[in-house]
Fold this protein.
Amino acid sequence: MTLIVVAGAVGAFLSVLWVSHLRRDLRRRGGRSAEWEGLSDHGDLWTSAARCPECHAAGALLSREDDVLWHTCMACGHRHTRQTRG
């Protein structure tokens, strides 16, 4: 009987922990997209993570035009569409 109570308490604790981590992750992800969502005029975002497929340099401006994400290289100026929003 004691084992069942302990297992239930541990299960409840793990469930609460999982829900709190899930909520925190959703808030974190929502903050990332806040710069893009709900605005009619989107500004450009600078990133050092994106690499240019033309010259392979790091550093680009990401801009969204008509729901298409564009990558503009800061080194060579090459511009192409992005497949994912990071």
Observations:
- The mean pLDDT is 79.
- The first strand starts at residue 45 and ends at 51.
- The helical segments are 2-33.
